[in-house]
Amino acid sequence: MNQFQYTRPAETAVAIKSLAKEPNGYFLAGGTNLVDMMKMGLVVPDKLIDINRLPLKKIERTPTGIHIGALASNSEVAEHAYIKAQYPLLALAINAGASPQLRNMATVGGNLMQRTRCPYFFDTAMPCNKRTPGSGCGALQGINRMHALFGASDKCIAVNPSDMNVAMAALDATIHVTGVKGPRAINIGDFHRLPGDHPELDNTLQKGELITSVDLPAASSAYNKHVYYLKIRDRTSYAFALVSVAAALHIENNTITGARLAMGGVAHKPWRLTAAEIFLKGKAITEDNFKQAAQIAMQGAKAYEYNKFKLKLAPNAIVQSLKLATGLAS
Amino acid sequence: MKKDAIGDSLSRVDGRLKVTGGAKYSGEYKVPNLTYGVLVSATIASGTVTALDTRAAERAPGVLAVITPFNAPKVPGYQAGAERPVRGLKLFNDNKIYFNSQPIALVVADTFERATYAACLVKATYNTEPFETDFHKNIDKGVTPQKGNYKDYVRGEANAYKNAPVVVEEEYLLPTEVHNPMELHVTTAFWDGDDKVTLYTKSQGVKGSQRSIAAAFGLNPDNVQINSRFVGGAFGSSLRTWPHEIAAAQAAKLVKRPVKLTLTREQMFTQVGYRPLTIQKIGLGATADGKLIGITHESHSQTAVYEEFTEGAVNVSQFLYNSPNVNTLYKVVPLNVGVPAPMRGPGEATGSFALESALDELSYKLNLDPIELRLRNYTDTDPERNKPWSSKYLKECYQKGAEAIGWADRKAQPGANKEGEWLVGYGIGCGAFGAYRGNAVAKIKLTADGSVNIQSATSDIGPGTGTSMVLIAADTLGIPADKITFELGNSAFPNAPTQGGSATVSSVGSAVHDVCVALKQKLYIMAGKPADSMEPIDYVAVLKQNNMPSVELTQESKGNPEAQKYSMYSFSAHFAKVHVHPLTGQVKIKKIVACVDAGKIVNHKTASSQMIGGAVGGVGMAMTEEAVFDNRYGRYINGNFADYHVPVNADIQQIEAIFIDKPDPVLNPVGTKGIGEISLIGVAPALANAIYNATGKRVRELPITPDKLI
């Protein structure tokens, strides 16, 4: 770890200005990812702006849904009574991630910013275009068992490791950010990027912008009854997803009137399964329909040497998550 | 049952210290004037480090020294022609790189943080040479080990299995498994003058560490003090003295201050050994009614180019079943990797995975219950050495274990047993591990207040050694356990073997038993009674009568010469019940039953805990653990606790330990045979076999992750 400057402002405006002046500065929230990366020498900041004193912790109901302050801890969100009642998918996904200790420290904003767990990104002795642009992608011809099926490029095949983000995608979250140019709102689908030619960029935040909250729309709270977050992983807890599926259905008279589906562990961003959602709308609750939805969801998937199993595991997980959400399986 | 007697269930005598933080581990000793050492690792797998730019590190705040191959003070035991040469990697003795992540520098500073910071400022220049870490590509370069008895073994006819009516011929892969004890390896070293050194170090054998450090620095062993009172898990990783321990002492000598060197978790993957990647070919041939005609077991294991590591991976096939024809082959493949080390159940855990999996495959080919197949090939004498067993109750293990797991509910047809969507399977895996006894010495002191203190230079890496020793002493002396203290982990104590090979209770327990008997006899004589009298006496009153404040005795205990006539093993039968989801490949291990014949069980509570711990290790071996190389760089891609998966609590459901608990009449006076290794040996095949029974999918390459089951 290098030596760095550290400040802890109490006002959001000060924090933003402080970062804007610092070309190699980072906001520090829970530190569960950033500090790890600093220890590994992946991130070598000149300045850390600790934002934990900023007034961004509140979770509150709003006329349009729920507002979750960027500094609310993952545990607080997962334990929040209204979220558990109205947005249970989010609570389930959060609790599928990390460990209780990490969830107590990790914030919602930090989780959105969580960087990939690609082993090549995490080892400075190996090439990684995300860490060191132009150095090459170690994973492309390497051990790519954990890597992407969708939206990858020959520059980067890493995946977004977050569970929370998958639920946020399914629940149509809006990310509120603010910066020197003022506040703006970003739909979750536009927040994380695909790697393309610039895998060093995980998201569409502009330099100096700070996430202030994540808002979930009231419309998504209709998806609170038939819900499942299925995470397939190499051990039962404290492991990143091989594949995960967030499934939430609205059902009337045994007919699916709306579906929300997203996958984790398959792309550089939480992977919303919009085509499968459209297919399921108006369909009956049958395993066959779920299989067709999974088939649709998998269109365009591309595997690498070690992650070919995901071409089978991912659709299976989609089917199983839908069965579990609808009670076809228990 | 009698309280405080062998066979009781005594809580750990040091349990309170452990759960209240009062137990001091090697990294927790506050030594005045302490400095901190941090290792810098190479990023190439072979070649030389041609230059190290240490200027920035040396200028960094608080830095006292940067030790490199170019400036390191010579370690006498590393030099050619040394009187007591140190085996293995000679750290900083030259600039050669044998494996990726080999240390190339040691930064010493006044705080850990400053040392860590300065370590990242050291810049290396390398001359890179071709390297090999790809086991599969290099398997043909396997060689028969030069040291030890690893020659090809043939009993009867080689490869007789091929001509049998029913044949299984398969290959099994065990990936590299890393010990990963919770406690990091740490050494604090400080010198008194030029010829006396003290180490607080993570060690399974303080006497062994004393000899190694003395050899390294050309010292009289009496001038080397090793302390290792508490060890936070080891599983074999601290059986030997590692280069970083010598480096800590080397650095302390150079900076003339105490140095504490703690490995990082990442360094734990490369500096302190591992269970080596092993590929095993098994051939089994049987008659139609399930009598084995031939067993062939060929094993290739990874080792290091700079040091040969061997283990008995094929031994189990030589004696566990009654086959007239057996042949085995064991070769090691030198690669640019760190040297392996024994890991819980070394050799046998690896071998039994292959043998017991193959036997399971055979049972399906024969359409025979796997237990029945084992019974048909049961052997009442050791077929390898042609000797009687000192004791063997493996049949009882089959029976009791089968009852406890609910074997009667097993369906022979894979996939036929379901609970909801989940496929249900049952499996068995057996194992054996040699029952050993080494020479050990114990010293006892009875004080006029009635308290008894016993000392021996053994270790406790977790099984509860002190607790067992207290119980043996309480039983032998006939006094309450709370009057007795047992001290270990100090090289100044009387000699005891390194804690390994499941032999501590057998070795040190015998010494404790014998010293207690000797004390008792002395007190009887002091009381004017025959030494072997059974009449109860008041020990304290005897001391008072003789005006003695205390009485002390030291006793050495050696093996029973009769033991040569026998083959001595602990035996285990492990059973598993699993649920497997056919769509997602998720496995729930519903229950594991470990039934062992390990002789007399001294303390049931700690023995059960040890069995459970071993079973969890077996779950890791079977289901989650695999250290993965990227062979293009010769580096691990998952050398950390997040990506290398040791099992977590959520992976474990019910584990039940059952002991046959019949004393072995030969090995030692207490009748024990040892459980440390046998607790793990056989768990992995039991799980793999249960998963096959559930799914019809035979996984021959561990670990059994979800991708292999869909």
From TrEMBL, chain A:
Residues 1-221 form the FAD-binding PCMH-type domain. Keywords: FAD, Flavoprotein. The keyword Oxidoreductase does not apply. The keyword Chaperone does not apply. It holds the Pfam family CO_deh_flav_C. SUPFAM superfamilies: CO dehydrogenase flavoprotein C-terminal domain-like, FAD-binding/transporter-associated domain-like. PANTHER family: OXIDOREDUCTASE (PTHR42659:SF1), XANTHINE DEHYDROGENASE SUBUNIT C-RELATED (PTHR42659). This is Xanthine dehydrogenase YagS FAD-binding subunit. It comes from Mucilaginibacter gossypii.
UniProtKB/TrEMBL annotation, chain B:
Keywords: Molybdenum, Oxidoreductase. Residues 20-130 form the Aldehyde oxidase/xanthine dehydrogenase a/b hammerhead domain. The keyword Oxidoreductase applies. SMART domains: Ald_Xan_dh_C. One of its GO terms (molecular function) is iron ion binding. Gene3D superfamilies: Aldehyde oxidase/xanthine dehydrogenase, a/b hammerhead (3.90.1170.50), Aldehyde oxidase/xanthine dehydrogenase, molybdopterin binding domain (3.30.365.10). The keyword Aminoacyl-tRNA synthetase does not apply. It comes from the Bacteria. Pfam families: Ald_Xan_dh_C, MoCoBD_1, MoCoBD_2. This is Xanthine dehydrogenase YagR molybdenum-binding subunit. The lineage of its organism: Bacteria, Pseudomonadati, Bacteroidota, Sphingobacteriia, Sphingobacteriales.
